[in-house]
Amino acid sequence: MPRAPRDVAGLARRQAGLPNLVGECECRQRGLSNRSHSRGLQNRSTGFTLIELILVMVITAALAVFALPKVVDTTLWRLRSFGDELQARHQAMLRLALQQRRPIVETLSGSGVSWAYGSGAAIDTLSCPATESPCIAESGARSVVFNSGNSGATTTSTGSAMTVTVASGSYSQAYRIEADTGLIYATP
Question: For the structural domain made of 75-186, what CATH number should be given?
Answer without folding.
Answer: 3.55.40
